[in-house]
């Protein structure tokens, strides 16, 4: 149910019902506020009894038209995204497929994570020299900086 602007609305937690109260018209303050609201809204009459069935039907038709237009835009954008995804799939291959192809060429391809794990193990190894540990830290700094 639509309520006029400026109404006091609350949810009664005991009954679970929503309640609305029109502002008190006894004070001059609320009348001035109501007058400002009328000026802001222009010639729109917010009293629910003043809308004719034709006006309501027109408003509903406009809402349905805008909803159809929104659905059409969503459908078009979803089709566009699918086309973009297909183009990307044509240009790029999964990393597993690339690894298999490199293995056939006897080239080992490692991810950054794998390289970082090796560098950390080299740094923690007691068999590594001081120069190897420093080099591992410099290389590790490079990879961490990328992340």
UniProtKB/TrEMBL annotation:
Keywords: Coiled coil, Endoplasmic reticulum, Protein transport, Transport. InterPro entries: Hsp70_NEF-Inhibitors. GO terms for cellular component: endoplasmic reticulum. Residues 1-44 are annotated as: Disordered. GO terms for molecular function: adenyl-nucleotide exchange factor activity. Residues 56-115 form a coiled coil. GO terms for biological process: protein transport. The keyword Hydrolase does not apply. Transmembrane segments: none annotated. Signal peptide: none annotated. PANTHER family: NUCLEOTIDE EXCHANGE FACTOR SIL1 (PTHR19316:SF35), PROTEIN FOLDING REGULATOR (PTHR19316). This is Nucleotide exchange factor SIL1. It comes from Merops nubicus.
């Amino acid at each position: 149910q639509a309520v006029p602007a400026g109404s006091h609305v609350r949810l009664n937690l005991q009954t679970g019902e929503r309640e609305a109260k029109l502002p008190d018209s006894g004070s001059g303050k609320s009348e001035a506020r109501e007058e400002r609201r009328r000026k802001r809204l222009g010639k729109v009459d917010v009293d629910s009894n003043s809308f004719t069935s034709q006006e309501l039907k027109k408003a509903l038709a406009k809402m349905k038209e805008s909803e159809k237009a929104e659905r059409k835009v969503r459908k078009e954008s979803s089709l566009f995204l699918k086309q973009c995804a297909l183009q990307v799939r044509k240009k790029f291959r999964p990393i597993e497929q690339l690894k298999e192809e490199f293995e056939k060429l006897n080239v080992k391809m490692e991810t950054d994570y794998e390289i970082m794990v090796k560098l950390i193990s080299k740094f923690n190894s007691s068999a590594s020299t001081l120069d190897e540990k420093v080099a591992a830290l410099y290389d590790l700094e490079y990879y961490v900086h990328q992340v």
